[in-house]
Amino acid sequence: MIKAGIIGSTGYAGQEIVRILLGHPEVQIEWYGSRSYVDEKYYRVFGNMFQLVDAKCMDDNMEELMKKVDVIFTATPQGFLASYMNEEMLKNTKVIDLSADFRIKDVATYEEWYNIEHKSPEFLEEAVYGLCEVNREKVKNARLIANPGCYPTCSFLSIYPLAKEGLIDMKTLIIDAKSGTSGAGRGSKVANLYCEVNENIKAYGVATHRHTPEIEEQLSYASGEKVTLNFTPHLVPMNRGILITAYASLKKEVSYEEVKAIYDKYYDKEYFVRVLDQDVTPETRWVEGSNFVDVNFKIDKRTNRIIMMGAMDNLVKGAAGQAVQNMNIMFGFPENEGLTMAPVFP
Question: What pTM value is reported for the model?
Fold first, then answer.
């Protein structure tokens, strides 16, 4: 049994970590961190936790926390963990960060896109980008995990096999993405009010979304060339879910069977990535509440382009579930421990 602490436990992703870990046989939650609800019962913040969690919310005292637990999850805004990170922390505990503080290796790129100064760039090289399906061996021995963003996870896993095999022209890659409102976090914002979101869909962060450099960096590693792409996210009126539709030109003529064999090569043994049957398109409703990513593709012979699609729950595989998946690998548990829940429908 390992002990876990969660900083930011009263946000959407933090609460999702709590929900998952309550069903994990190898983990005990010792610290429910929250700046907004210190000393308030956790179940008073989230009524779904009534009679499940009797603990009170605690502060974000990282110095005390790192001496009490084996792993810390930081579901916090950009800049929080970087301002606290030090060698003593990593000697005492493992850290899984759900912010972008350690995802992007180039500090100048991080500071440009997030518009804040990075307070601990000396740990960027050590931090492991926690995309388990690609970096599993690195995750095993990591002290610090940069848990990938939600859009980058779904985008990358949808495109990765074809980028890795050099089948698509990376210069032609365009990603269209759609997300539910929980992706914006639990903080109050006018743009996320019911009357603003309901019966509406809109593009946002056009050509400026902060996940763009993360997607470009990871696809550059995969393809072996510098990737620059268009990424356009959209806000849709639903609680959870991400849908990715990506487009790229093919470098050669291929059949469905040839492309399917490539996806199977990379994902046939991956528990959480489901390559769908021919002509079945991914849907957010079939992954909601789960750690699964559903992917598929369609060859458009008329334009010599391929359409790559993916769907997942932004709070699970896009945040909390992937964080727990990383924890499982780090501590030698079965990778899907506590994460085998079926998607919720309806």
Answer: 0.97
